Amino acid sequence: MLSLSALCLTLGLAACGTSGGGDGSTASPGAGAGDIKIGMSVSTLNNPYFVQLRDGAQAQAAKLGAKLTVTDAQNDASQQVNQVQNFTSQNMKAVIINPVDSDAAAPAVKAAERVRIPVVAADRGVNGAEVAQTVASDNVAGGKLAAQELAKQLGEKGTVVVLQGTPGTSASRDRGQGFTEGIAAYPGIKVVAKQPADFDRTKGLDVMTNLIQSHPDVTGVFAENDEMALGAIKALGAKAGQQVKVIGFDGTPDGIAAVKAGTMAASIAQQPRLLGQEAVDAAVKLAKGETVEKTVAVPVKVATKENASEFQTS
């Protein structure tokens, strides 16, 4: 589950040592590039959404002739802090952070900014520290769209459960807020349970399996990302898309495939490649001493079976 720009370069992947673990990849510069170095710490690359975000960032860095080093925090907040600290000692001109935890990221961001290295937050905000820019989807609006679409598919009545993302992330908080506000407009729909599954497919399967036992009559599911939605669909089996409508969030390739197949009723589609591109754009400008907007909100859209082909990526 807000941030902007950076510079980078080519498409080769190379191991990048970071204390605390997490493999890194470096886009190597072309002729005359490499004087602008940007570090990017991604929360996890074990999620296709964040792989797309990274790919967008690498492509934009190559286009702009910047050198981008990407590390994988593996959903470990302390490891991410180490990675950002390493970036500061490596004389990066800007840092992009996609926080594992919006609160835990603050000390690392403050450390970077103390040595005048600007930080861009991507997809998720940072709490308790000021970043130069946050580029993210409008997650509150997306949560409201999810509520509206689920209500529509349920005929404005039913019993719903919510699979929440990782506690402490701005994306989970904002999507949950939007959904809660949106679903309140439908008195015929009752939300009977909310449980975290950490944006993870396997955890989504496990949590949904337990929820089915305690709420066998559930007719709708809102999962705060597609990975959890896909786990819920597996738990529901033949009920998914028939007796139970599942709404996901992200518009990942697997999510869109499930929408086309009819097992996922809809996904609130983000544009992760664009988020990565915007983050690099901002980082490069900041490295050059230019000013950027504090917040960039990237729109989201509802992907349904009728329009799913519009959201497919190569």
Automatic annotation (TrEMBL):
Xref: Gene3D superfamilies: 3.40.50.2300
InterPro entries: Peripla_BP_I, SBP_2_dom
SUPFAM superfamilies xrefs: Periplasmic binding protein-like I
Matching Pfam families: Peripla_BP_4
CDD domains listed in its UniProt record: PBP1_ribose_binding
Periplasmic binding protein domain residues: 38-290
Chief place where the protein resides: other
UniProt keyword terms in alphabetical order: Signal
UniProt-annotated location(s): Cell envelope
Annotated family: Belongs to the bacterial solute-binding protein 2 family.
Protein name listed in UniProt: Ribose transport system substrate-binding protein
Organism: Nonomuraea fuscirosea
